[in-house]
């Protein structure tokens, strides 16, 4: 069975695909010191005519186990950021593009995003739609709205299964206790 192993989400490893949004990043004080500003957690790319940056809320079902990866998508006209609200760890699956403009399946990678990490996919990066690890997980999405085709989807040549070494029954407990 073709499986993909899980890697921890780290800025350097994810760099070819986008930015890691670190909710524990550095901050500076604003508003007479009453407020911390975690400035520029990520950059927004808006390509093509008439695009507008939009902020949306997603409330996700828990991804069915075992997690099957059968397709990938990309947004050629803009970046797409996923920022967890509360206890929403998730799985990020990405792949580089090949010279024919399709995913290079040999380069598929899967990252475990803790509840204090988000991702910001660069425009055109192949990724799997959201794979949330808890029921009702909430995310803010920052991406491009507007004219033009901004979601290419392609099937993978074979189904790949995520090789999760996570025990979902204890995952939320561990996250609440800050063990992950
Ligand atoms: N369509 C949408 O808002 N979500 C997908 O692009 C995704 O990456 O989950
Ligand atoms: Ni997407």
UniProtKB/TrEMBL annotation:
Taxonomic superkingdom: Bacteria
GO molecular function: lyase activity
Pfam annotation, one family: Ureidogly_lyase
Record keyword Ribosomal protein present: no
Cross-referenced Gene3D superfamilies: Ureidoglycolate hydrolase
Catalytic activity: (S)-ureidoglycolate = urea + glyoxylate
Keywords for this protein: Lyase, Purine metabolism
Subunit structure of this chain's protein: Homodimer.
Protein name (Swiss-Prot/TrEMBL): Ureidoglycolate lyase
């Amino acid at each position: 069975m073709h499986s993909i192993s899980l890697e921890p989400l780290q800025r350097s490893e994810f760099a070819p695909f986008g930015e890691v949004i670190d909710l524990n990043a550095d901050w500076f004080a604003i508003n007479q010191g009453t407020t911390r500003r975690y400035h520029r957690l990520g950059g927004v790319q808006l390509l093509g005519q008439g695009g507008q940056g939009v902020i949306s809320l997603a409330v996700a079902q828990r991804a069915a186990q075992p997690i099957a990866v059968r397709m990938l998508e990309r947004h050629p006209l803009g970046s797409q950021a996923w920022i967890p609200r509360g206890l929403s760890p998730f799985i990020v699956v990405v792949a580089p593009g090949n010279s024919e403009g399709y995913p290079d399946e040999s380069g598929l990678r899967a990252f475990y995003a803790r509840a204090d990490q988000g991702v910001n996919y660069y425009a055109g990066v192949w990724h799997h739609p959201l794979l949330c690890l808890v029921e009702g997980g909430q995310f803010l999405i920052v991406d491009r709205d507007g004219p033009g085709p901004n979601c290419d989807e392609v099937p993978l040549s074979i189904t790949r299964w995520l090789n999760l070494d996570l025990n979902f029954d204890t995952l939320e407990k561990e996250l609440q206790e800050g063990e992950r």
